[in-house]
Amino acid sequence: MPPITANSYPSNLFSTPDLASDRRNPPDVFLQPLHTSSVARELIDTARALVHPRGKGIYATDEDPQTIAAVLGGPIDEARLKEWTEEEQRDRRRKWREAAYKAISSEYISGVILYPETLIEFQLAELLTSKGIIPGVRANADLRPIPRSEAELAVEGLDGLLKKLQAARIAGARFSKWRCPIACTSVVRGLPTQAGLETQADTLAQYAAISQQAGLVPIVEPDVAFTEDADLPRSADVHERVISAIYERCRVHGVLLEGSLIKPSFPQPGLKHPSRDKVTAEDVGLAIATVIARSVPISVPGVVFLSGGLPSEVATSYLAALNALVNSSKPDSPFRRLPVLSFSFGRALQGDAAKHWVRGDEEKMKETLEKWSRACWLAAQGKTA
Ligand code: 13P
């Protein structure tokens, strides 16, 4: 591929046919007129490369500065954290990201999601690309309450998004992600509302279309809350409804599903529901497999789960149980036809490693990141370490 410069890409890739390469290397799916063949080919190849060979997954490192300061603060540094200047904190973020990216292996990790600061200002995409890891970027901006239902939060950032993502592509990104929080309570308490659900689904689909317009594979992330009183069937039902709604809106907005991925949460009982401690990884695995079979179109190449702050062991056990269920399903089971089921974990991958780095133990940090990357890679094949 020729080097990418600020002038390499027109503002709307899909409206600029590249006939020569379209004829040379057509994608193997039927395209709507709004998708040029060469861009579609690249989107499809990138989406597939993020989930193949089976086992590989994504490392999510797109926390905003406040969140990463908390991760890197920890009990031993809380006092010092307050003393650090903005510049010192920025330098610390850069050093942590760099250390983590140097530590990970392309044997287990296919892609990394970067915070825009890491991509554009620290320019760390090349470090990943040189290791055979695909850089991506966080696309969503801030949250704001939905007027009709103030307990639910819509996501800002669609204005000016195309330009922002084009700049990210020039800086080396090849995919992006957008997280929408979905409230989830018991049926009696009534969240999510229809207004909330439709707002999130349409925002995710608009984002996905714009991301593809900028030449980046979109990862739509419906993050269903598990802090309230929903039980497992209710959580699974909310997941199924929101994911179905997202793909309905993706059809309306013309998203090329083969060049996209989805990053859902794991359906699970809420922290305030009495069944929370009784649920097994196998219960969760069956609920997830059912949700995905009913709501994710077969043309989507992969589902990459978020860990949602679950302990690493728990998040990994859910992924392993899900993939073990797929492996043991009969040939005529719908679970045999599911997309690749992998991970896009943040906290479950790096939580322990960050603590070692904070204590200055770089070797232990590398070892821990390797340990959890490998555990996730095994889990995504239905195996345990
Ligand atoms: P966690 O795995 O820590 O939930 O992070 C994934 C992510 O990208 C959340 O938006």
Automatic annotation (TrEMBL):
InterPro entries: Aldolase_TIM, FBA_I
EC number(s) stated in the UniProt entry for this protein: 4.1.2.13
BP GO terms, sorted: glycolytic process
Pathway: Carbohydrate degradation; glycolysis; D-glyceraldehyde 3-phosphate and glycerone phosphate from D-glucose: step 4/4
Uppermost EC category: lyase
Gene Ontology MF terms in the entry: fructose-bisphosphate aldolase activity
Region annotation Disordered: where it falls in the sequence: 1-20
Record key words, sorted: Glycolysis, Lyase
Entry similarity comment: Belongs to the class I fructose-bisphosphate aldolase family.
PANTHER family attached to this UniProt entry: FRUCTOSE-BISPHOSPHATE ALDOLASE
Protein name: fructose-bisphosphate aldolase
